[in-house]
């Protein structure tokens, strides 16, 4: 009768369930690090998870003072899947002309407590990505170059930033700037000054677009669940209501139109999701979406 709750942030829970004798008792309970501080708990319902297992998991979340959001099984679940969309663009922005401190400042000015590169340094993301690529036999010049120089983040005193002994304050590092410029040269990219507004749109609009796909696929039940995940798990500024609320407040048509412009410049990664197009055509927002 025991529930098997896995804390994985990446493994396929349907595959885990498939090799048990009671797949109906398997569920994802994805805590966020540090788990004693972060209140979010993604509860990941697999294909055969029983209703009583979901209900019990939600009750446990309440009992331990977590904010639970029910999601489906997909690559990265909801939170990390949206994060990946932002991460792809943040790296492209570096290659095209931005620097880590500019990208981070755009998001902290918006209200995030930290930008993506400060977060990477804090969580050891350079080393984790490097070791993962070694396992897969893949390469990333920028990430590999930082790792090979021992730039593993705060714990090493240097990552995307430099850290003075005993300090967590991120300081720009000329060595990192040179590595980034070399990455641009290797890709044949002429670096340019990128306005803060463009950086913001290219970071945040793909997040909203990926979230629209998640809603359309039924991986999240409501737009507000996605907002809860990003507010409690990723530091989205509370007063801005979460990415879906922010999108509705900004206007889906405005976001869709800008994404079409970005699609012409940067490719289909900016192609508006079908659900976004549908809601714009109907004059509605994500709050009006009631599922299929």
Molecular structure report:
With 292 residues, the chain is an alpha/beta fold. The chain has 13 helices and four strands. The chain has helices spanning 13-18, 51-63, 79-96, 100-110, 116-123, 125-136, 141-148, 174-186, 196-217, 223-233, 243-250, 252-266, 274-282; strands at residues 4-6, 26-31, 40-45, 67-72. Strands 1-2-3-4 form a four-stranded mixed beta sheet. A hairpin with an 8-residue loop joins strand 2 (26-31) and strand 3. Helix 6 packs across helix 7 (141-148), helix 7 (141-148) packs antiparallel against helix 8 (174-186) and helix 9 (196-217) crosses helix 12. The mean pLDDT is 96.
Produce a short descriptive summary.
By secondary structure, the chain is α/β, with parallel strands linked by helices. Helices cover 53% and strands 7% of the residues.
Distance between the termini: 33 Å
**Helices and strands: which structural class?**
alpha/beta
Give the topology string: H per helix, E per strand.
Answer: EHEEHEHHHHHHHHHHH
Widest sheet: strand order? 1-2-3-4
Uncertain segments of ≥5 residues (pLDDT<50)? none
Number of distinct helices: 13
Outline, from the CA principal axes? Answer: globular
Please name the defining characteristics of this protein.
292 residues; alpha/beta; 4-stranded mixed β-sheet; 13 helices; 53% helix
List the helices and strands and how they pair.
Layout: E1 4-6, H1 13-18, E2 26-31, E3 40-45, H2 51-63, E4 67-72, H3 79-96, H4 100-110, H5 116-123, H6 125-136, H7 141-148, H8 174-186, H9 196-217, H10 223-233, H11 243-250, H12 252-266, H13 274-282
Parallel strand pairs: 1-2, 3-4
Antiparallel strand pairs: 2-3
Helix pairs in contact: 3-9, 4-9, 6-7, 7-8, 9-12
